[in-house]
């Protein structure tokens, strides 16, 4: 990356009561949408919490816009964030919470704009104690975005949202990206990640396993699906990958050797009606997580 990163972790480690949650984690991110992926307990929220200054690293440095993050330090004004678990004071209304958050930032987004963009009208005057899970999530995202900060941290932004809420959040994330912001999120929603993320970073057991553009991570294992018509699968393709009979009577071979499989199928079968498709990000990540750590 030629420009200064907007957010970075440098050899960050974190232990909770002596148990490692993040180990020598390094990553530097610029403008764009960046997603941390990994199984439950991988260390994603820990990494994000350290970046926001809410959690302290046991070792290493985190920086936002070139300044080292310290708990409660000035960098908090350059960050808008929504944590994974949301709790708001039960007796405050959504409007009051947003007003309170906005007052901590030098140039907050006008309330009316946030309300419209995230569809908050229906519960703006409601007490937070009476909000549904999805409403709390929308309010949390609104609290992050109202900061109008260059770096936006979203931990599981889509959890519990309905279709309309997901569309609103996706739209908002893409608008933030167009504005040159650095959006960092943790997610288990692969479809959403594929449609919004520029880069993905795979974390497992507190260690960064892979990082790069969404396409490059998807292509790391170069897995493909070869779908074909056949009464029975030719023996020559079975050693090339995992073979599955589909509901429509066709076969699907998941393989790293699609060209070799295609050659065998074209020779062995009369009209195989071959289709070759790259694997999804979710499948590639699943395979990467199964591999022994490199
Ligand atoms: N406050 C804490 N005290 C003790 N251990 C913790 C604490 N927070 C997290 N951990 C542990 O640290 C590890 C990483 O947790 P973390 O919440 O960062 O994972 P995650 O990747 O965000 O998981 P998920 O996808 O489930 O949200 C886990 O083993 C978790 O049990």
TrEMBL record:
**Name of protein:** ABC-2 type transport system ATP-binding protein
Q: Which UniProt keywords apply?
A: Antibiotic resistance, ATP-binding, Nucleotide-binding, Transport
Topology of the protein relative to the lipid bilayer: Peripheral membrane protein
**What sequence ranges are listed for the domain ABC transporter?**
7-230
Cross-referenced InterPro entries: AAA+_ATPase (IPR003593), ABC_transporter-like_ATP-bd (IPR003439), ABC_transporter-like_CS (IPR017871), ABC_transporter_ATP-binding (IPR050763), P-loop_NTPase (IPR027417)
Q: Which GO terms describe its molecular function?
A: ATP binding
SMART domains given for it? AAA (SM00382)
Naturally occurring in which organism (per UniProt): Arthrobacter russicus
Compartment(s) where it occurs, according to its Swiss-Prot or TrEMBL record: Cell membrane
Pfam families for this protein: ABC_tran
Note whether Nucleus occurs among the keywords: no
């Amino acid at each position: 990356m030629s420009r200064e990163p907007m957010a970075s972790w440098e050899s960050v480690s974190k232990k909770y009561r002596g148990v490692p949650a993040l180990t020598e984690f390094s990553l530097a991110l610029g403008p764009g949408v960046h997603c941390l992926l990994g199984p439950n307990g991988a260390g994603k929220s820990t990494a994000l919490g350290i970046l926001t200054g809410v959690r302290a690293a046991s070792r290493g440095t985190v920086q936002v816009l070139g300044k080292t993050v310290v708990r409660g330090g000035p960098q908090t004004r350059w960050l808008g964030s929504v944590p994974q678990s949301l709790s708001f004071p039960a007796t405050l209304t959504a409007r009051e919470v947003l007003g309170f958050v906005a007052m901590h930032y030098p140039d907050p987004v006008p309330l009316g704009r946030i309300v419209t963009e995230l569809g908050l009208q229906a519960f703006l005057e409601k007490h937070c104690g009476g909000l549904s899970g999805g409403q709390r999530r929308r309010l949390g995202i609104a609290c992050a975005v109202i900061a109008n900060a260059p770096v936006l941290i979203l931990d599981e932004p889509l959890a519990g949202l309905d279709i309309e809420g997901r569309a609103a959040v996706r739209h908002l994330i893409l608008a933030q990206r167009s504005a040159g912001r650095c959006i960092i999120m943790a997610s288990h929603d692969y479809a959403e990640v594929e449609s919004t993320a520029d880069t993905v970073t795979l974390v497992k057991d507190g260690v960064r396993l892979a990082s790069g553009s969404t396409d490059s991570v998807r292509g790391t294992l170069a897995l493909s699906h070869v779908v074909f018509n056949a009464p029975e699968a030719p023996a020559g393709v079975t050693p090339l990958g995992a073979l599955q009979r589909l509901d429509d009577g066709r076969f699907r071979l998941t393989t790293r050797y699609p060209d070799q499989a295609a050659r065998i199928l074209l020779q062995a079968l009369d009209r195989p009606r071959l289709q070759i498709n790259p694997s999804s990000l979710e499948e590639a990540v699943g395979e990467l997580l199964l591999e022994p750590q490199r």
